[in-house]
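Entries read sequence, tokenised fold; example below:

***
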Amino acid sequence: MSSMILNDVLVIDFTQALAGPYCTLLLSYNGARVIKIERPASGDMLRSAAPFTPEGLSIFWASVNSNKESCALDLKNNDDLELIKNIIRKADILVENFRPGVMEKLGLGYDDVKKINPTIIYTSISGFGTTGPMAHEPGFDLIGQGYSGMMPINGDVDKDMGRIGFPIGDISAGMWGYMSTMTAYCGRLKTGVGAYIDISMLDGLFAMMPVEVTAYTKLNELGHYTGNIDPAAAPFGAIPTQDSAIIVAVLGEKLWLSFCQAVGKIEWYDDPYFKTGPDRIKNRAALQAVVQPLFKQKRTAEWQKILTDAGIPNGVINDIKQACEQPQIAARNMLVKAGDYLVPGNPMKISSNFEMKTFKAPETIGASTDKIRKDFK
């Protein structure tokens, strides 16, 4: 059995809430030892976020803090600060997501830390980054979505714009943090030089919309909310059926011909309104007016067989329960045990990396403090 790629990597984790802890969770997925520094009494602020288990533990917190060692230390206590410096001396990576300036006030900014460990990879994650006029403003997921330009293109045609329904700003900031940290770590393996990484949630959200940004800068086109359809093609989106809905993806003339044949409407293929992709996009409303009544005549399972047999990309709309129970998730080991929890597994399938079947349970505040004091005395 091969060992995990990051088995010898030590991470000191000063993160809280969601973005930073997700970054360090990803590091732990591939074997890094993550020591999470928490306040002795209250711990990570996310521990107080609903929903809660019957025992009073936060699901929000548990979802991104398995596989870590909780070390309860007071950053203003000299003895605890000395222990932190001992950990830093041996650490490969430090991750923090306080507001810019907080770590500097604690004497743990990058300039301070690199004097203790010149080769450390130091990753800071914040709402707006450490530079620019908004650097010191508080940044939460919904605020980031608003500033990014994302909300006006997300929402239902009939119900106006809206937020993406999960904290995409936090999760993506954690992902950008992980990718940047690993990039810098690879650089250090080649050069022996450490690095400072400055991750902004707003930067990450903005970078996730290359098509929309370029359409504006090149064509002066503003994206707008389109509900459950993709504006790049038609028919391309969720179509109501007799019992639910099915997602249909028809892109290009070959698939359009196959679609018309499969649904028994070859006359649509010859209709000048629908002849080319641009025609179908321009006349989307007219196309929907004939497609939707037809799809209402059969159940989703029937349409899925018809479309799949014709080689037309399609899918169903799962809720979280259905997503967790689908065989593909099980086959990919994407639900793993972490103590009494079932949490998402490692999406990074690397052939040379041993994949954990179980994660360490999320720890109570300071559960590993005594052990860490012995390891780094």
Observations:
- The mean pLDDT is 93.
- DSSP finds 17 helices and 14 strands in the chain.
- The CA atoms of residues 96 and 124 lie 5 Å apart.
- The longest helix spans residues 168-191.
